[in-house]
Design goal:
The chain has 607 residues and is of the alpha/beta class. The chain folds into 3 domains: 3-248, Aminohydrolase, N-terminal nucleophile (Ntn) domain (Glutamine Phosphoribosylpyrophosphate, subunit 1, domain 1); 252-422, Glucose-6-phosphate isomerase like protein, domain 1 (Rossmann fold, 3-Layer(aba) Sandwich), CATH 3.40.50.10490; 444-598, Rossmann fold (3-Layer(aba) Sandwich). The protein has 19 helices and 25 strands. The strands form 4 sheets. Strands 3-2-4-1-10-9-11-15 form an 8-stranded antiparallel sheet, with helices on one face. A 7-stranded antiparallel sheet has the order 5-6-7-8-12-13-14. A hairpin with a 5-residue loop joins β13 and β14 (232-233). Bound molecules: fructose -6-phosphate. Fructose -6-phosphate is lined by residues 296-299, 344-346, 349, 352, 396-397, 482, 486, 603-604.
């Protein structure tokens, strides 16, 4: 998730405006920053890795000539956060500059083709193919807008792109597919950006660009064109009435709620990971003598769920281990045949990194799944995958958890394929269902919000909560418990439901809330028994069920219905959403700050 911006000013210099806008987009990523302006038929560029303030201190981002320009703040995906990977990227002749937010899935083959035709690349990014393609098209006689249109026709993936060219120095051309893009219209000036806050101090009039549309910005304003039929689109500006504080969170009251709502997008990004890395990691897993899945907190819950995925799909037994326990539990036995798949959103968690150090000393192979390219974990792992969730500001992990689940399920599926453990029909079905998850999650967030909010109102004063699930849903129960405890300070327990009667059930007294996670999988029949045990002791039964599960509806005091149609191994993704929302609304009801829970930090760098 990067931030892009462009502006055409009637008067004044673009660079300080771009700098200010990028600061307001910094929440989208801060690995590197760059600006390109046009002046007297020349392109001026400043870019470097580091946070905006650091780069500004070194290079003075306000000091570039010209009233037209584009800028970018980067969340590294393809290529580490080095200066040469910072945007804007240019063509061979430094005539065209492009900024991009998104992922070009087929960039490797396109890059190869361009190199064969003599183009010289300076970065490892997917973005750089864009100015080179435009360069070719413009040499064929196309205008900038036509050249961008022809270029995006060749791209698979997601993008919001803005380009300038010295050959047409009076305009910015931008285009969108699946990555956000808005146009801002002021009396004299016009802007394009990944998000409204970028231009909010200058104007509150905006137009949303839709997928498959190209926009030309110039001194007259904006023109929108549909790429497919090349017809002009008329869309009048709307007015946004956000305060600057609200704008930071795109109108949401908290980052946590914003990030819960971003899950359809972050999940879509996990479906665009490069095959070569997924395949490489799968090969390592296939060859391993033993596999440990190691992490802390929420990431550990993703590992626990993944152990069911690997076992059920690929028939691979894995050991999920809490990182802080790894050395004590397995430190002496781990060896050259051991493989650790280490999961860490931040890539900086001290306990997780200590595990890696210990395991590497004993010659084990370390694979990593993280959200932060350039983090320590990416440097110490043999192979790593970036889950591409974009920055997560709320302390409680939400979108990064569901993304971890998506990536881990893809690995399990690939391994199953590689080992020939499941049929083609099953593979196709799972692949199809994986693709559907972002839409399913989007629908569920919308339909569940109100219901969950009401539940939080009703249960806000309860002293303690119990979360139970069987099979893969026991990981969801643990995650639901962690969310509620950490942000609403509600003491909670979670167990595999079958284990509840081996002790914890003694806590139950009339009205004790017990939340059951109940997808319609093989555990459904058995969990009915567990519900009955709790019900008999007067517990208040809250069930999270699949839509139409009349049996459990009739047993429960409250129910939340999930529209899924997903196989068991993928069910944790939609089933955790109402639990995230429940924790959020409970925090609000109990007057806690969900974004900054007491005593916690986003990245725990001490042991
Ligand atoms: C809970 C949460 C923490 C982290 C844990 C590991 O909402 O965010 O439990 O999951 O501190 O962090 P990473 O994944 O960065 O290693």
């Amino acid at each position: 998730m990067c931030g892009i911006f462009g502006c055409i000013l009637k008067n004044g210099e673009a660079a300080p405006t771009i700098h200010g806008a990028l600061k307001r987009l910094e929440y989208r990523g801060y690995d590197s920053v760059g600006t390109a302006t046009l002046h007297k038929n020349k392109l001026f560029i400043k870019k470097d890795n580091g946070k905006i303030d650091e780069v500004h201190a070194l290079h003075d981002l306000d000091n570039l000539p010209g009233r037209i320009g584009v800028g970018h703040t980067r969340w590294a995906t393809h290529g580490a956060p080095y200066q040469e990977n910072a945007h804007p990227h240019t063509d061979c002749e430094n005539q065209i500059a492009a900024v991009h937010n998104g992922i070009i899935e087929n960039f490797a083959e396109l890059k190869m083709e361009l190199e064969e035709r003599g183009h010289v690349f300076r970065s490892k990014t997917d973005t750089e193919i864009i100015p080179h393609f435009i360069e070719e098209e413009m040499k064929e006689g196309l205008t900038l807008v036509e050249a961008l249109r022809e270029t995006v026709k060749q791209l698979d993936g997601s993008y919001a792109i803005a380009v300038v060219s010295v050959k047409e120095p009076d305009k910015i051309v931008c285009v969108r597919k699946e990555s956000p893009l808005v146009v801002g219209i002021a009396d004299n000036d016009v802007y394009c950006a990944s998000d409204i806050p970028a231009f909010l101090p200058m104007t509150n009039r905006y137009v949303i660009v839709q997928d498959g549309e190209i926009v030309v910005l110039n001194d007259e304003g904006y023109e929108i064109w549909n790429i497919l039929d090349w017809k002009q689109v008329t869309r009048n500006p709307e007015i946004v009435d956000w305060s600057p504080k609200m704008a930071e969170k795109q109108g949401y009251p908290h980052f946590m709620l914003k990030e819960i709502n971003e899950q359809p997008l972050s999940l879509r990004n996990t479906l665009r990971l490069q095959d070569q890395y997924l395949d490489l990691m799968t090969t390592f897993l296939d060859r391993a003598g033993e596999v440990f899945l190691v992490a802390c907190g929420t990431s550990y819950h993703a590992c626990l769920a993944a152990s069911y995925m690997f076992s059920k799909l690929a028939l691979l037994a894995t050991h999920p281990v809490i990182a802080s326990e790894f050395v004590e539990q397995h430190g002496k036995s781990v060896n050259i045949d051991s493989t650790l798949l280490v999961v860490s959103q931040s890539g900086e968690t001290a306990d997780t990194l200590a595990t890696v150090d210990g395991a590497k000393l004993r010659a084990a192979t370390v694979l990593a799944l993280t959200n932060v390219v350039g983090s320590t974990l990416t440097r110490v792992a043999r192979v790593y995958i970036c889950q591409q969730s974009g920055p997560e500001v709320g302390v409680a992990a939400t979108k990064t958890f569901t993304s971890q689940l998506s990536v881990l399920s893809q690995l399990a599926l690939r391994l199953a394929k590689m080992r020939g453990k499941i049929s083609h029909v099953e593979i196709e079905n799972l692949e199809e269902k994986l693709e559907q998850i972002p839409d399913i999650v989007e629908k569920n967030i919308q339909t569940q919000k109100e219901k969950v909010k009401q539940l939080a109102k009703k249960y806000r004063d309860k002293q303690c909560f119990f979360f139970l699930g069987r099979g893969i849903s026991s990981a969801v129960a643990l995650e639901g418990k962690l969310k509620l405890m950490e942000i609403a300070y509600a003491p909670s327990l979670a167990y595999p439901a079958g284990e509840s009667k081996h002790g914890p059930i003694s806590l139950i007294e009339p009205g004790f809330p017990v939340i059951f996670i109940c997808p319609k999988d093989d555990t459904h029949k058995t969990i009915v028994g567990n519900i009955m045990e709790m019900k008999a002791r007067g517990a208040s039964i809250i069930v999270v069920i699949e839509k139409g599960d009349e049996e459990l509806k009739s047993l429960a005091d409250e129910y939340i219905e999930i529209e899924t149609g997903l196989p068991e191994v993928l069910s944790p993704i939609p089933f955790v959403i109402p639990l995230q929302l429940f924790a959020y609304y409970m925090a609000i009801e109990r007057k806690c700050d969900p974004d900054m829970p007491r005593n916690l930090a986003k990245s725990v760098t001490v042991r």
